[in-house]
């Protein structure tokens, strides 16, 4: 708890404190959250590096391990979650809970590590949970499982560990709080959230999908997985047989078809660049990101490099000023300090006028076909110029003037008002298989999207609309965007 205005309050979910009478709560580190309010520690991925007996604990992406670590690590041990290890920029190994890599005396020169977005911190509607939580929502420790199959079990929360308990609980994680002796033993739910990733959408190649979607991309209904259960018309993860290897699938009248499920983050990543959210600015041509060469001081230059978990974040406001998050300084559109580089660099904010000495403003030129892409025009002493692929100045009409995408590190959460019998006008070419995917994209697109609609004839084609104007249409349903708020994005945040 923390004290504010003379009152003692619980720390909100996603924050914590270990001090009695603290005046504020600390935010959880990257990729971590709290299951419930008023706890003293955050949940999320953890990994240990063993350097000849010296243990280093890590819980966030590390794109550049120092040489003392990556050349001397004997083993990596995953304590929670899933992790990827990379050598240079090439994928090397995915490491699971309890995984020790490498075995024996072989050393693995990982240059970077990063946790994988996975369903181990949440559960799916089909009763899948791979997490290691061992306490109830109220904080009581879980007792060891003890039944006819496991005489000495672990104490992690589970959903249905045997047929004895399967019909007695909701399909969400729970545990006994005292040693199992009968079905009446004390128990409680664990407060684990329901998944968004691999539930509302799929990650990677779909191997971890556990959602409840039940239609193929063409709108046809999936066959039953179990012939006796009509509720088992769900899409399967890619590893479960079939000929579809890169996304969830199902059989329709015995024919294998890809499912109507959107990929998490694909086509829902971009946002309106001048909407005021923090995020990365990426080249449309090769996916490289803006980064700052230095610790973030006045005069540090900008350059293009591979995107990573700690890529520099920027924010563009409605006036056109672009701010660097780490330093709070502004990107100077003039570029090129005398006697040094031609790159744009960080500086203090100046006036938004043509003769401004320091940071002036950028304006946007939208791509005629790619709704996410834009050029950055800089109003400077030399006239109207654009940013090129090297983050130098170039004529806007030049072929080297770069198109960029903006990928937010925050989520814009909007509410939507459902209107039955309504079709929106001003449609775009963007369509999605699910309402979740369409509304996520529409929220992040700001004023470029005002709502979503779908027809009864094509129930897996959710269309984005650029206007709130509507017409009566009996076989349509629309969702009109209303209030929005920006929240910091964490890959472990799920539904509560």
Give a description of the structure.
By secondary structure, the chain is an all-beta fold. The protein is 3% helix and 32% strand. The strands form 12 sheets. The protein has a 5-stranded antiparallel beta sheet with strand order 28-32-30-31-29, covered by helices on one side. It has a 4-stranded antiparallel beta sheet with strand order 6-5-7-10, with no helix packed on it.
Short précis:
By secondary structure, the protein is mostly beta strands. The protein is built from two helices and 32 strands.
Give the helix tally. Answer: 2
Structural class: mainly beta
Number of strands: 32
Query: If you average the pLDDT, what whole number results?
Result: 77
Model regions low in confidence, pLDDT < 50 over at least 5 residues: 161-167, 337-341, 351-359
What quaternary form is this?
single chain
| Radius of gyration from the alpha-carbon trace, in angstroms | 26 Å
N- and C-termini, Cα separation = 21 Å
- Strand coverage percent: 25-35%
Shape type: globular
Q: Report strand order across the widest sheet.
A: 28-32-30-31-29
Question: Into which percent range does the helicity of residues fall?
Answer: under 10%
